[in-house]
């Protein structure tokens, strides 16, 4: 839950001043694992989105995360990537007590939990990810961080495929393959996209933007699809991304992303539902057994 000492009223006043029009109303946006996300309506009819880094441990690193998101949005301005426009930043949280980033509100909406991703949507995702990877910011972003920390390399007690997890840890213990440094969203997936029908109208949540292997972005999108919709859409997306990018999947990055969903020893998974744990288990098993997903 957000910390109660965040001054929402001060944040709204700051947002109104930054846009030159007072905030008249607001609603909480869905999602927000790391932040409080508010959709704002202004007196002149404009709409904006306010991110407040209110959730730990991300709040502690809020200045870095919010600054990176602003820099990524500035870098995407004028490109074919439909990112929000950064309006104002209070990285140190001087106004509300938590880092704040005000940005434009894009058209479209996230998919509902039970909405399917058919071939047209999966193709749109693959094409957009190639477009993102084609961008060349003037200043490269930080090197990517692996979320598959070595302390996570413990076969989960709930796994039906313990041998596959052991093989995955062996893959990660070997040197990473060479790659061409590429501009990454680093949290690309269907949950961070806005849609109008089968068309993508926006890609949001740029706080993890990095430089690294393109297939790590694709792997993360596939893992999210596998957890939400099963292995079929995840496989389909990777095949479409491989065709659109003209490159082949590399098991190292697919394994790295899947293992990243494990919690450190002694911690609970971010998702505790048995069906989601089972889907992660099946996805990791598939990735290890059939790395090219052919």
General description of the model:
- Helix content is 38%, strand content 15%.
- It has 294 residues and is of the alpha+beta class.
- The chain folds into two domains: 8-104, Phosphorylase Kinase, domain 1 (2-Layer Sandwich), CATH 3.30.200; 119-289, Aminoglycoside phosphotransferase (APH), C-terminal lobe (Aminoglycoside 3'-phosphotransferase, Chain: A, domain 2).
- It has a five-stranded antiparallel β-sheet. A two-stranded antiparallel sheet has the order 6-9.
- α4 crosses α8, α5 (214-229) crosses α7 (251-260) and α7 runs antiparallel to α8.
- The longest helix has 16 residues, at 214-229.
Rg to the nearest angstrom?
19 Å
The CATH architecture of the largest domain comes to Alpha-Beta Complex
Q: Look at the structure and give the CATH class of the largest domain.
A: Alpha Beta
Look at the structure and name the CATH superfamily of the largest domain: Aminoglycoside phosphotransferase (APH), C-terminal lobe
The domain count comes to 2
By helix and strand content, what is the structural category? alpha+beta
Unreliably modeled segments = none
Walk across the major sheet and give the strand order.
1-2-3-5-4
CATH topology of the largest domain: Aminoglycoside 3'-phosphotransferase, Chain: A, domain 2
Mean pLDDT: 93
Number of separate strands: 9
Estimate what percentage of residues fall within beta strands: 5-15%
Pfam families: APH (PF01636)
Organism: Nocardioides cavernae
Protein name: Aminoglycoside phosphotransferase family protein
Domain Aminoglycoside phosphotransferase: 29-245
């Amino acid at each position: 839950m957000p910390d109660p000492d965040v001054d929402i009223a001060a944040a709204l006043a700051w947002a109104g001043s930054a846009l030159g029009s007072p905030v008249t109303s607001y609603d909480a946006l869905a999602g927000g694992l790391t932040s409080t996300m508010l959709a704002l309506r202004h007196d002149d009819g404009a709409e904006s989105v306010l991110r407040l880094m209110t959730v730990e441990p991300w709040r502690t690193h809020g200045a870095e995360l919010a600054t990176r998101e602003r820099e990524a949005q500035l870098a995407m301005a004028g490109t074919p990537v439909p990112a929000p426009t950064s309006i104002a930043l209070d990285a140190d949280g001087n106004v509300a007590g938590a880092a704040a980033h005000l940005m434009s509100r894009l058209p479209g909406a996230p998919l509902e939990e039970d909405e399917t991703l058919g071939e047209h949507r999966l193709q749109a995702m693959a094409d957009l990810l190639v477009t993102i990877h084609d961008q060349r910011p003037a200043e490269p972003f930080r090197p990517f961080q692996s979320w598959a920390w070595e302390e996570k390399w413990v076969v989960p007690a709930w796994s039906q495929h313990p041998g596959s997890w052991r093989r995955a840890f062996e893959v990660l213990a070997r040197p990473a393959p060479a790659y061409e440094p590429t501009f990454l969203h680093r949290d690309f997936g269907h949950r961070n996209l806005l849609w109008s029908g089968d068309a993508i109208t926006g890609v949001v949540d740029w706080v993890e933007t990095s430089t690294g292997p393109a297939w790590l972005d694709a792997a993360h999108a596939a893992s999210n699809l596998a957890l939400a919709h099963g292995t079929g859409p995840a496989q389909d997306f990777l095949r479409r991304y491989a065709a659109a990018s003209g490159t082949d999947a590399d098991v190292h990055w697919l394994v790295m992303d899947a293992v990243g969903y494990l919690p450190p020893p002694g911690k609970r998974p971010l998702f505790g539902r048995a069906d989601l744990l089972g889907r992660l288990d099946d996805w990791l098993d598939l990735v290890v057994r059939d790395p090219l997903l052919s």
